[in-house]
Amino acid sequence: MSFPPLPSGDTPIETALRNGHSELAEELRAFGAQEPHLPPVDAFVAAALAADAAAVRAAPEKVVEAARAARPGLIAWAAGQGRVDAVELLVSAGFDVNAMGRGDVPVEQPWQTGLHTAVERGDAAMVRALLALGADPSRRDKRFDATASDWTHHLERPDMAVLFDE
After folding, report:
1. Domain-embedded: residue 132
2. What is the rounded CA–CA span in Å between residue 72 and residue 95?
3. pLDDT value at position 153?
4. Three-class SS of 33-76
5. What is the pLDDT, as a whole number, of residue 106?
6. Bridge partner residues of 101 (DSSP)
7. 1 domain-assigned
8. Which CATH number does the domain housing residue 102 bear?
9. How many domains does the chain have?
10. Which of 43, 65, 85, 111 could lock onto 38 through a cystine, CB 3.0 to 4.6 A?
């Protein structure tokens, strides 16, 4: 079965892989999707988002540097996907835990940090993980000029607000 490209020009399997959805990629393969050849940076991002620690650690530093330059806000995206394991791998690969990105779509736009995204998603485990990884709770987002703690109040999440007092 042939899958037509999406409006972005990518095939569905490329999109699944680039966003860490290896299970979906497997299903697409089962339906006959052609195995894509991802450029090295995209392959690194796919491995990180799929929490493939061996592939992330095996990536040449040149590729990791290029990935950090191309996708500086990737931690915000990983946080939006609820992927604590991916966030930990990205931080270990030198990604800035406080970088601004988007948690709702995989584009580089400096909106908010992963910590803001975790609060927005109501993901207490992610908030704890990000704080343990050194996320700065005083960092303000670019859209509303508010801290992640401010977001807990605005979004009426008192259960999350206490995480910033621990």
Report:
1. yes
2. 7
3. 93
4. CCCCCCCHHHHHHHHHHCCCHHHHHHCCHHHHHHHHHHCCCHHH
5. 81
6. 112
7. no
8. 1.25.40.20
9. 1
10. 43
